[in-house]
Specification:
single chain, 140 residues, alpha+beta, STM4215-like, six-stranded mixed beta sheet, 3 helices, elongated
Length: 140
């Protein structure tokens, strides 16, 4: 599964519309404690290996959640839109060498807005967008 994760990170970091808004702040699983906002976190939440009647099809359907966090609702929605434009219904080689995967289909599922209020008066709240993505790709 590492190939698809590396390819997703590469795609997000190397898509002009996304990187213009978050730079290289794309993290697997969790962001560093003091990560600068806005940033993107993503993680795999499910995988299903496709099968023919008698054999493995060498295809995997993987579900990822991509989370965007920032200081304003507008900023996270702008990043979410750039991700959608870059990846929804994408097929082909995802990522940049050497971090690539052959993708047959991508699809944006749900998109949910979020807000985490500050824990005290010295902090500010953060806005989030959570996107669920399906990637169908070949197994190496």
């Amino acid at each position: 599964m590492a190939a698809i994760e590396s390819a997703i990170a590469s795609k997000l970091k190397n898509t002009a519309g996304v990187s213009a808004l978050v730079g290289n702040r794309v993290y697997r699983d969790v962001a560093p404690t003091n990560a600068t906002l806005p940033y993107i976190c993503f993680r795999q939440i499910d995988a299903e290996h496709e099968r023919h009647f008698t054999a493995i099809a060498n295809m995997v359907r993987v579900l990822f959640i991509i989370e965007i966090w920032g200081i304003s609702e507008l900023s996270v929605k702008n990043v979410a839109e750039q991700i959608r434009l870059a990846m929804d219904h994408f097929y082909g080689t995802l990522g940049t060498t050497p971090n690539t995967a052959i993708v047959k289909h991508t699809e944006l599922g749900a998109q949910v807005n979020d807000y985490v209020p500050p824990s005290d008066a010295s902090q500010q709240g953060v806005f989030g967008v959570h996107q669920t993505w399906t990637f169908i790709h070949t197994e190496p």
